[in-house]
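Worked example

This section walks through a single chain of length 643. The input is the sequence exactly as stored; nothing has been trimmed or padded.
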Amino acid sequence: MDIYTNPEKHTYITGIAKVFLMPTDSGGIPAVAVSKRTSVYISSTYTILMILIFMVGWNLIIAIIMAWWPTRGDPNRQTALVALWNSGESMNAFALMTSYCERVIMYMVRGGAKGSLKDPEKGGRSDQTGAGQGPTAGSNDMGIRTESAPLDQEKQNGTLEGSSESDAKCGVSNLLWGLLFAFLALAMTVGNVVSGILVPVELVIGNFAPPAKSVIFYPDVPFYTRGDDNNAGFAKLNSLRAPAALRALGSIEASKVTVRGRMSVDVETSDGSTKAKYNYNVTGVDMGLQSDPKLQLKVYGECHTDETWLLDSNDQRDTYKLFGGNETHKIEHQPLVDFPPMVTFVIDTNTGDVSTSNTSYAMIVNTGSLYSYTAGVDPWYVTEKAGVNATVAYQVRRGRPALSCWEVSRWHLGGKDVDVSELDKLPGLKLDEFWTKKVFPYEFGAPRVATIGNAAGPSALKSASYAMAPRYILDADASAIKTDIERLLLGSWVSSRNVVRDTTTYDEGKIQGVSVGSGGLSDAAAKFVLQSGDVETLSVRILIAVPAILLFLFIFQKTLSCVLRHSKPKKKCIINGEDKDAVALVATQIFRRLDQQIGSWIWSHTEAIIPMVYPTKREETTAKTDPDPKSPAITTQQPVNVD
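Given that input, the structure is written out below as C-alpha cells.
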C-alpha cells in the first residue's frame, strides 16, 4: 500500500500524444498518461482489438490449411476442410474437430476392419448401396462421381490405396491432423480469452504523469542560510518544507509495513541505553526520475544514547555539550504549560564541511519534567512520582540522554560510487544540472532524518500523538525512543523519495527561488513523474503493438487470399472443376452451384465470397419444369450409415 497526496491537475500533463519515459528498475518504458475515464475507453477498445486479432488469425490459419493441406482425394479429409471453413470461430472449430477425431477413430475401428472404401482391383468405389441404387449417368457440376464417368473421377480426386493396411494408415494420419487442428483451435480460443483479460491489464502500468515545467520551484537555500538574519531564513525554509515533512510522516502511519520493506531499522533498548542501526536505498525509480532510473542513494548509520554529553540539569533546563566541542545546547523545561514533546537536531560542524559522506549529528528531546498519566521506563520517558501539588501522578525525569549518531550517504550508478556532494561527477549521469547543483546538494547534504525532524517540529515524535493540547500530558508507558526513531527514519526514506516531486507542491509565496537563467528551467529538468490517483499510465509499446499486429495479420491474410485466387493449387480440389477452394467451399457458392443446375438464374461474381444475380440476366420468366434432355443428369448418392 502506497500513500500519497494527489497533486492538482494543473501540475501534470496528460494526453495520448504526450509520450514520456516511465521509470522502472530495468529502465524507462515509453508511456502516456490519460484520465481514468479515457483509460476505460482505451482498455475497452483494445479488448475489442484483441478479439479481432484472433478472429483474423483464425481465418488466416484456415486459409493456410485450405491451401496446403493435401486431401489426397480422401472424402474424410474433404469433410474436415468443409467443417473448418464453415466453423466461423475457433471454439466451434474445436468442437467440430473433436467430433471429427471421434469419427476417425470409429472409422479406424469399424471401417478399417471391414475393408477398403475402394475396390482394390478396379481402383474405384465399391457399390455399398446395393444394385440399382447407385448413380446412373454422367457427373454434375459439384463433381459427384457417377458410374458413367469413373475415369474422370479418378483423375480429379485421385486414388486411395485399396488395402485395409492402407486404410489404417490413412485413418491414423487423419486422426493426427484432426488432433492438430483441434489443438490449434483450442489454443486460439484460450489465447483469445486470456489476451482479452491480460492485455488491458498490462496496458495500464501505473498512475504517473509528467509534470508541467512551470510548477517546479525550489528555494534559494544559500540566501536563506547566510546566518545574518537572526535565523529568520531557517524559519522560512522550515515553514516551506513543513507540509512535505508532515505528508511523509503521515504516509508511514498508513503504509508502515511497505516502507519497512524498503529499509532496515534495528533499535535495541536495555539497561537504560539504546542502540540503533539503519540503512536504506532510494533509487531513481523511487524518485520518479525519467533520465536516471537506476541512480541510487545509499544511506546507512548508527545511533546510541550518550549520557556523557549532559553537562548540567536543574529545574529550569538541561545543558548539553556535544561532540567534544565548547558549544553548549540548552533545553528548557516547561512542565505545566502547553508544549508538546519535541526533538532538536544538532549537526556536527567541527569537521568543517557538513556535506561529506560521513556526518555526525545529535538528537535531544525536551521530555524532561513533562507530566504523564502513566509510568514509563524508556530512556527518553522514564518517570518518577510527581510533586504533592501536581494533579497528575507521574513526571518525566530531567536530564534525558541525547542520541549520538553518524550517517554515511553516497550516490551509486553503474557500479560507481561518489560522495554525496559530488553527484555531478558520477560517470554516466544524465540528470539535469538543476538537480545536481541546485537541489540535491542541499537536500541530501545533511542527514535527511534531521531535515524532516526540524521541518515537522511538534509532530516529529510519535509520543506527541499521545499528548493532547492544551496541557500535552504524556502517556509515558506507550511512548518509547524506539518508536520515535523508527518514525523519523521511515519518514526520512519517504521524504528522500519525494524530494523531486515536492518541488511541484511548494507554496512559494514570497520565498525567493533559485536562479535558473533568463530562459527558465530546461525541458530536461522536468524529466520526472508525479503520482496521482486521477490518471492512468498506458504503455506505448502495447498501444502500438496491438494495432500493428492486427494490421499485419489483416494484410497477410489479404495477400495470401489474393495469391491463392490467382494461382493454381497443386493439390486436388475438393469440388471438381474449381481451382479456388476458398471460394468453392463457402456455403453461398455451394448454393450458387446447385441453383445453376435446377434454376434459371445467371449468376455473376462466381469468384466472390457472395455471388450475385442481377435482374437483367434472368434466362426465362418461368422456372424450368422439365430437365433439358441434352443436359447431364443430376444424380445423388445415398449416404452410407457407418455409425
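What to look for: Residues 586-638 form one domain.
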